[in-house]
UniProtKB/TrEMBL annotation:
Catalytic activity, EC: 3.1.-.-
Domain of life: Bacteria
Identification of the protein by name: CRISPR-associated endoribonuclease Cas2
UniProt gene name: cas2
Provenance organism: Pedobacter segetis
Keywords, in A-Z order: Antiviral defense, Endonuclease, Hydrolase, Magnesium, Metal-binding, Nuclease
Entry-linked InterPro entries: CRISPR_associated_Cas2, Virulence_VapD/CRISPR_Cas2
GO molecular function, one term: endonuclease activity
Amino acid sequence: MRLNQYRILWILVFFDLPTETKKERQIASKFRKSILQDGFSMFQFSIYLRHCSSRENADVHIKRVKNILPAKGHIGIMTITDKQFGMMELFHGKTEKTLPSTPQQLELF
């Protein structure tokens, strides 16, 4: 099956974790470090994203995030297609920014 903008997915993980105590800060930091180790990149302070070449690949990473969810806080996981991601408009103040580049895909015939 050929890769295209409708089959390639982006996973967005957004969270709001408590950080009032030292223990809560440690838990939040551990969660953040764990998703970074799984290949997610920071998009905004509490929004991380990861490019996946297929639904199956996305399901693996979603399962990994679900396995490390902290006991407290609000966490959202959303998948969007590469086409939808490409339609996003980003701004830094009033200046338009370019979207993060899509990782290169190797296609074998």
